[in-house]
Amino acid sequence: MTDDHQPKQSWGQRREKRLTLGASAVVRDSCKTRIGGTMLDISQWGCRIQLSSPTASPGRCVTIKLEGMESWSGYVRWANATQVGVEFERPLHLAIVDHLAQVHPEVEILSAA
């Protein structure tokens, strides 16, 4: 019996290159907790998000919403003090990924010193 929610690849392996961006995002977890953040990169298969509070943990189901876009579901695959990696439940169409990278240019994230 297999668990479909287990990571298919390790952190160091990617199915494809991620595109860098800086899009405001709202992440909701299975408890409906709302967390603000910035999506830092994206591919068809997942994304990396800088969160305003470190509350998401690996294995947790989340929903990601960007302004003007429909929401996507996925699973947190890794987390550290400020960022999470999310694997989408279903891959995004390449045109959507390209569009997001074009309309949300990269932003510099400054950490508190």
Reconstruct the topology from this structure.
Blueprint: E1 19-29, E2 34-42, E3 46-51, E4 61-66, E5 72-79, E6 83-88, H1 94-103
Structural class: mainly beta
The CATH class label of the domain at 19-94 is Mainly Beta
Q: What's the number of helices?
A: 1
Distance between the termini: 47 Å
Q: Write the H/E string, N to C.
A: EEEEEEH
Helix content: under 10%
Computed CA radius of gyration, to the nearest angstrom:
13 Å
- Oligomerization: single chain
Strand order of the largest sheet: 1-2-3-6-5-4
Count of extended strands = 6
CATH architecture of the domain at 19-94: Beta Barrel
| Silhouette | globular
| Strand proportion | 35-45%
Low-confidence stretches: 1-11, 109-113
- The fold-level CATH name of the domain at 19-94 is Thrombin, subunit H
Q: Quick one: biggest sheet?
A: 6 strands, antiparallel, barrel
Mean pLDDT, all residues:
81
- Full CATH superfamily name of the domain at 19-94: predicted glycosyltransferase like domains
Description:
- This protein has 113 residues and is mainly β.
- It has a domain at 19-94: predicted glycosyltransferase like domains (Thrombin, subunit H, Beta Barrel), CATH 2.40.10.220.
- It is 9% helix and 41% strand.
- It has a six-stranded antiparallel β-barrel.
- Strand 5 and strand 6 (83-88) form a beta hairpin.
- The chain is globular, with a radius of gyration of 13 Å.
- The model is unreliable at 1-11 and 109-113 (pLDDT under 50).
Nutshell version of this structure?
This protein has 113 residues and is mainly β. The protein has one helix at 94-103; strands spanning 19-29, 34-42, 46-51, 61-66, 72-79, 83-88.
